[in-house]
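Same chain as my last thread, 288 residues:
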Amino acid sequence: MSELQDTGVVAVAPPKPRVFSHKNEAGVWPLLKDLGGGLLRWRIWFNFAGEEIRNRFHGSLLGVAWFAVSFLVFVVAIALYFRALQGHDLLYVAFGMAVYQYVVSSIGDGCNVFVSASGWIQGAQLPYSVYIYKSLSRSLLPLLIHLVLCGCMFVYAWYETGVLPGSAAWESLGAFVLLLLNAIWVHYVFGLVNARFRDLQHLVSAITRLLFFTTPILWTYEETGGVRRMIADLNPITHFVQIFRGPLIGDPISDLHWYVAGGITIGGWLLMMIIGGIARDRLPIWLD
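reply #2:
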């Protein structure tokens, strides 16, 4: 120090890294305000989502119609290969695949939701939830397209069998709400963890490939027992597929599926409050 003073140089502490964020505070209440503040800025994340979709299909002849084409090719091919192309079986595969693809895309997008927006997070004063809602609204488009196609298949099944869903079909709306609520906490938790440990996205990708075979899409849950049923029950996606699809196609739904789906939703939001409340103020540093 004395040598520095003799040369006229003053030693100063290195500056703290400047963190660009929106009210970058730890705690549960700042997290909840972040979620609410993001909702109020719906025009921002809605336009962000639209821009990403346009960029994805820039130069494509079919554009977003590729969501419909790829879904139809898969569903019809699976229905033809594994079972007769009948009304109930076709709906079973179609609704199951629609929900499965949405859940898997939510998990995968959730891992990268903050990493892909690192420039915005470090350079713009926006709630972190804006990037979550952007990702959710972007993944909702293919789900809605898939459900419209499922509706067309439903008309075909009704024409073939003359059977309409009962009043229990409204329960699918509750299942849809649970899907959205779970997508929020999955994005926030997985996004934070993957920002710190980038291996998470690769681990999730490997696991979701296995979950496809343990989800009742290519096989019937009600006709399965033993070890296969136990493995399917350990798969969280199974329960969300069942509570959404069952009421629409008239299959009986065990209360177990609702209990598990509700428990996952509550537990996931509690986990989000714990991890988000502790780690959200460190996110810009992890992305640096």
